[in-house]
Amino acid sequence: MSQTQTLDVGLEGLDALSGVDALCLFVAEDDRPLPSSAGYVDWRLCGALSRVLQGGFFTGVKDDWLLLPSDGKLTVPRIFVVGLGSRKRLDAASLGEALAGAAKVLSRAKVEAVALEVPQGASLSDAVRAEAYQRQFLPAFKGGRVSLLADKGLVGSLSSRKG
Fold first, then answer.
1. What pTM was estimated for this model as a whole?
2. Calpha distance 84→91 (Å, rounded)
3. Phi and psi of 66, rounded to 5°?
4. Which among 62, 83, 116, 129 is least surrounded, fewest beta carbons within 10 Å?
5. CA neighbours within 13 Å on the CB side: how many for 98?
6. Domains in the chain, start-ordered, CATH in brackets?
7. DSSP 118
8. For 85, what's the count of Cα atoms within 13 Å in the CB-facing half-sphere?
């Protein structure tokens, strides 16, 4: 079973990552500008993710995948980017599918420790996001450690579900 630590979403949270060999970002096709962790990572990468999106190589459609090197601009060497499809249409089922798919790809890539932020969507409560993470991502991820970049609402929902 993976052990989880939580860090705040933002540059400080990204800078606090240690012993993590991959970062997993979720980007929707309608995410422009990039929100949350993806936006912070793009800032650190001097717009590299935005350039890939503008070039059309990766667009954020469902089942779209991208692997980027951090080039030493983050403490994490590899960045896996997962396409979510439309964030406006992101529901509990599609969130669960995206998290389970990401966990499987990360496991196949032999990722031992990953950092990720559970995606938000217009109709997704913190409780639904916490449940999808715990029921879809954690059982499918074969690595040993997860650093969760989380807002206070998600942290509270994760804490209340442990009991």
1. 0.93
2. 11
3. -145, 140
4. 62
5. 32
6. 3-160 (3.40.220.10)
7. P
8. 12
Q: State how far the Cα of 20 lies from the Cα of 27, in Å rounded to an integer.
A: 20
Token readout for 127 is: 């409780």
Instruction: State the Cα–Cα distance between residues 43 and 38, nearest whole angstrom.
Output: 9
Residue 148, both tokens: 């969760």
Whole-number Å distance between alpha carbons of 115 and 148: 6
- The pLDDT tens digits for 63-121 are 999 999 999 999 999 999 999 999 999 999 999 999 999 999 999 999 999 999 999 98
What is the spatial distance between Cα 114 and Cα 144, in angstroms, rounded to a whole number?
A: 9
Measured CA to CA, the distance from residue 74 to residue 68 in angstroms comes to: 12
- Which residues are registered as beta bridge partners of 114? 22, 146
SS3 state of residue 61: coil
